[in-house]
Amino acid sequence: MTKDPQLQFSLDSYSNVFSVSATGIRRYVTLLQPLDRETQDFYTFTLLASDGVQQSFPSDRDDNGVGRK
């Protein structure tokens, strides 16, 4: 568990059916409405987590001209 305030969670789909708790150390996926198996047999979604750090992958290794002749 983490206490990182920048930690963000989100669902990639069905955000009208499920939600992820926005605060606290523990996060919960909760129902926003009743499920009806006659309308939909199952739900498949991905829970996305981000710590607020963006990774950078430079495409040019020689940004400063080092090694040029």
From TrEMBL:
Coiled coil: none annotated. CDD domains: Cadherin_repeat (cd11304). The keyword Membrane applies. Keywords: Membrane. GO terms for molecular function: calcium ion binding. Its main location: membrane. It comes from the Eukaryota. GO terms for cellular component: membrane. It is found in: Membrane. InterPro entries: Cadherin-like_sf. This is Cadherin domain-containing protein. It comes from Pleuronectes platessa. The lineage of its organism: Eukaryota, Metazoa, Chordata, Craniata, Vertebrata.
